Amino acid sequence: MARETELRTRVTTSHWGAFEVDVAGERIVAARPFALDPTPSEIPAILPAAVHHASRIHRPAIRRGWLQSRARAGRGSEDFVDLPWDEALDIAAAEIGRVRAAHGNSAIFGGSYGWSSAGRFHHAQSQVHRFLNSIGGYVASFGSYSTGCAQAIMPHVIGVEFLKFLYEHQDGWHTIHDHTETLVMFGGINPKNSQVSMGGVTEHETAGWIGRFVARGMRCVNIGPQRTDAPDGCAWLPVRPGSDTALMLGLAHVLETEGLADRAFLNRCTTGYERFRPYLLGESDDVPKSPEWAAAICGADAGEIRALAHRMAATRTLITVAWSLQRGEHGEQPYWMSVVLAAMLGQIGLPGGGVGYGYGAIGGVGKSLIGLRGMTFPQGTNPVQEVIPVARIGDMLRNPGQPYDFNGRRLTYPDIRLIYWAGGNPFHHHQDLNALHEAWQRPETIIVNEPWWTATAKRADIVFPATTPYEREDIGRSSLDDYLFHMPRLIPAVGEARDDYAIFAGLAGRLGARPAYTEGRDAQDWLHALYAEFRSLAAEQGVEVPDYAGLKARNWMRLPIRAEGPNRSYFAPFRENREAHPLGTPSGRIEIFSDRIDGFGYDDCPGHPVWLPPSEWLGAATHEAPLHLVSPQPGDKLHSQLEAALADVPGARPVALAIHPEDAALRGIASGALVRVFNPRGACRARAAVTADILPGVVALPTGAWLGDAGGNLDPDGNPNVLTRDLGTSRLGQGSSAHTTMVDVAPLEG
Ligand SMILES: Nc1nc2c(c(=O)[nH]1)N[C@H]1C(S)=C(S)[C@@H](COP(=O)(O)OP(=O)(O)OC[C@H]3O[C@@H](n4cnc5c(=O)[nH]c(N)nc54)[C@H](O)[C@@H]3O)O[C@H]1N2
Ligand SMILES: Nc1nc2c(c(=O)[nH]1)N[C@H]1C(S)=C(S)[C@@H](COP(=O)(O)OP(=O)(O)OC[C@H]3O[C@@H](n4cnc5c(=O)[nH]c(N)nc54)[C@H](O)[C@@H]3O)O[C@H]1N2
Ligand SMILES: [Mo]
After folding, report:
1. Do 229 and 294 belong to one domain?
2. Of 57, 517, 695, 708, which one has the fewest beta carbons inside 10 Å?
3. 555 lies in some domain
């Protein structure tokens, strides 16, 4: 008995970083910050309540109507029948086999986007992809909701894969600290978002660095709709959402017309400026992109725009762009235009100058580390060719067999009969959830692995209960971090939950693919094999780590992989010798005009950056939808994770909606009042947080609330995706355009 209640304390890690966990018997009883983290995340505090929450899925479950007659009707409203594991796995395997035989593997959608949990082996997305590959493949997805649009446009402009540029070649914090004089942050740099990183950063540094920049006298300017997108000490230039390209053009116009553009750099390192210039000056369309023109669009003062341009030209300036700017209609344009603006300043390739992306989006961007390889669970190869841009899932389900454009190619949406989702919550993350709910009724079968009864699990036909990381052993390591973790199994599986690996091994066995999926290994074998590979690759780079047993005994260790001194940027060798180090673009230079993009013939993404008004923005406000809604990431959690327990905290739901005092007064809304946020696509509840830190005309409602059962009539907890638009950024990027949304707000009676 004494053993059962004995308190054990271990460290584990997560996407929000490392933390200490107390375990008593079979329960997690407390979670505390990791001692070496200077600014730890508060997210873990809710963990004990979440892991043991009543919303955990305890047994395999099959929706009643589907079980009885394969009925599609009832997804999201009908109850489930609990079944023993063997029976549920038999049924699921038979159904996967039926679809595969009748329609082929290209009728199975396994894009299965989502962050799931940290841990190198028990990574749900890798597991589901490997499983589906082992049985003949699946329709996959390209890119992420985070950066899908940037991933499409940026290789055309700077000739390198976007994420490679971002994680390996941007200036690090040290370089910025030592050299940058003006930091121009489109969309801010917010330590709130830097809490989180894929696999977790252990020492959260972003807030500390911005503090040092400010203390050193660096001018840091946050450009965007919310003052709170950057820490105190940064200046705020409020601009309307979706208008950044116009502002960048206004800045560029000053540089061009006042002789401040770096001609030598433009001539030597870029192509196409002479084709862009007539547009900038208005020679091609009679609209000079002057500061006055930009001011009318973005809402900033023309004098301020001019002054900023002067300062940018006179000082070492780094332009940073948040990922949010490309999560909006025509999101390609501010990304492309930020490169053009930086090229005109001529500082690309100089330390602390040029342009960079997502410094505040996730933790670890800006850390300079020696890269270590290894510990990736192999996913196998996918014989199915069809890949959709990740955020086009609704269109895919609505338009089987229909053509669509993506990045220069004309593609056809596959006809999906079966969806398998593991480790994501599309009824949190996708736009226009009422429309997705409709589209979701089309496939014959939907299978979901989930620890909790999320809105997605409730809309499945077959649900398998998955363990959380605290119920299984794993290894924690992020390429943006300098720590290594053995993640211990802290508690037994909750209910009858199984690891995704065990679930897929069970299905693979029934489908004759067990050897391909498991290679004869159990989870322990895989952990040892992945770690052994990592250990030997690390040794090759001179980094010694203990063997598996040694790491397990230590629980965690710091890796000696911090790069000393300033890092060298992707552009530095190119700047020094363009001929010897050309970029990977067709011209070998930065492409201000892209013949390739021009050749696609897209009116929503022509051959050079342009200002294209979004279909919803403050410049086209209507009586029905006068306010611009931005839906940023939540500060108190990761997306929709741990939401069930957070929602139990008295007063925590519905989610707070930031609204300006003028907009609140106009509607008779007091701070703390319940409101209805609505537009023709849907409506949700929220709690008003009246603040002058947001631009008048803009409201902000973070993502992450679980979609209520009633769907979009009036979503109770405040999921903004009942309001957002499901439209690709353009035919080029086809990314999510979540931030392009107009709404109205009204007090909620009763
Ligand atoms: N309006 C609006 N919408 C947005 C955004 C926005 O800015 N505005 N941002 C978008 C972005 S950038 C992103 S990344 C997405 C995020 O969207 P998602 O990644 O889908 O969100 P999560 O809540 O992290 O979903 C992960 C799910 O995996 C489950 N899970 C955790 N561990 C495991 C496991 O081991 N096994 C299994 N099977 N499941 C597990 C969790 O319970 C959770 O339900 O949202 C997007 N949606
Ligand atoms: N705590 C926490 N941190 C997270 C996450 C989380 O769920 N929780 N999710 C992580 C993930 S998956 C991602 S992809 C990143 C996302 O990182 P980002 O994309 O950078 O973050 P967002 O929160 O979507 O937006 C940041 C801010 O951009 C502003 N903004 C919106 N539209 C515009 C615009 O058109 N112009 C300008 N100038 N500003 C605009 C909004 O005011 C918003 O607060 O965050 C990561 N960090
Ligand atoms: Mo993301």
Report:
1. yes
2. 708
3. no
Per-residue burial over 455-493, b if 16 or more Cβ lie within 10 Å, else e, is: bbbbbbbbbbbbbbbbbbbbbbbbbbbbbbbbbbebbeb
> What residue owns the CA closest to ligand 1's atom 3?
429
* 737 CB near ligand 1 (under 6 Å): no
Q: Has this prediction a pTM greater than 0.85?
A: yes
Ligand 1 neighbourhood includes 115 CB (under 6 angstroms)? yes
Pair (512, 396) in one structural domain? yes
Q: How far apart are CA 23 and CA 43, in angstroms?
A: 18
Residue 29: φ, ψ to 5°: -110, -20
Q: Is 164 helix (H, G, I), strand (E, B) or coil?
A: helix
568 Cβ neighbours under 8 A, 6+ residues apart = none
Cα separation, 420 vs 130, in Å, equals 12
Q: Can you say how many angstroms the Cα of residue 295 is from the centroid of all Cα atoms in its chain?
A: 30
Q: Has residue 230 been placed in a domain?
A: yes
Q: What is the CA(457)–ligand 1 centre distance, in A?
A: 13
For residue 556, indicate whether it is catalytic: no
Q: Answer whether 302's CB lies under 8 Å from 294's CB.
A: yes
- Give the residue, by CA position, lying nearest to ligand 1 atom 10: 145
Q: Are 300 and 266 part of one and the same domain?
A: yes
Residue whose CB lies within 8 A of the most ligand 1 atoms, among 15, 55, 116, 721, for a mutation test: 116
Q: Please give the distance, rounded to the nearest whole angstrom, from the Cα atom of residue 737 to the centre of ligand 3.
A: 13
CATH number at residue 175: 3.40.228.10
pLDDT at position 148, please? 98
Of ligand 1's listed atoms, the one at least distance from the Cα of 643 is 23
Residue 55 lies in a domain: no
* Residue 694 shares a structural domain with residue 727: yes
Provide the CATH number for the domain around residue 716.
2.40.40.20
- Ligand 1 proximity of 735 Cβ (cutoff 6 Å): no
Instruction: Give the residue whose CA is nearest to atom 31 of ligand 1.
Output: 116
| 340 and 193 assigned to the same domain | yes
Long-range contacts formed by 644-650: CB under 8 A, 24+ apart: 644/50, 644/53, 644/54, 644/55, 644/452, 644/453, 644/706, 645/46, 645/49, 645/50, 645/53, 646/46, 646/50, 647/705, 647/706, 647/717, 648/49, 648/53, 649/46
Q: Which of 66, 113, 138, 570 is catalytic?
A: 113
Matching residue, tokens 């899925």:
57
Say whether both 313 and 182 belong to one domain. Answer: yes
- The answer to whether the beta carbons of residues 330 and 614 sit under 8 Å apart is yes
End-to-end, the C-alpha distance of the chain in Å comes to 51
**Strands (DSSP E) found in 161-234:** 182-186, 219-224
- 126: domain CATH number is 3.40.50.740
* Domain identity same for 37 and 70: no
DSSP 8-state assignment for residue 168: I
Mean pLDDT, contiguous 10-residue spans, the chain (750 residues): 70 98 96 96 96 98 98 94 98 98 98 96 98 98 97 98 93 95 98 96 96 98 98 98 98 98 98 98 98 98 98 98 98 98 98 97 93 92 97 98 98 98 98 96 98 97 98 97 97 98 98 98 98 97 97 97 79 96 98 98 98 97 96 97 95 96 98 97 97 98 91 86 98 98 92
Q: Is 717 helix (H, G, I), strand (E, B) or coil?
A: coil
The 3-state DSSP class for residue 422 equals: strand
For the chain, what is the domain count?
Answer: 4
Structure confidence at residue 713 (pLDDT) = 82
Instruction: Confirm whether 540 is domain-assigned.
Output: no
Of the candidates 194, 645, 651, the one whose C-alpha atom is nearest the C-alpha of residue 452 is: 645
If asked whether residues 111 and 255 sit together in one domain, one would say no
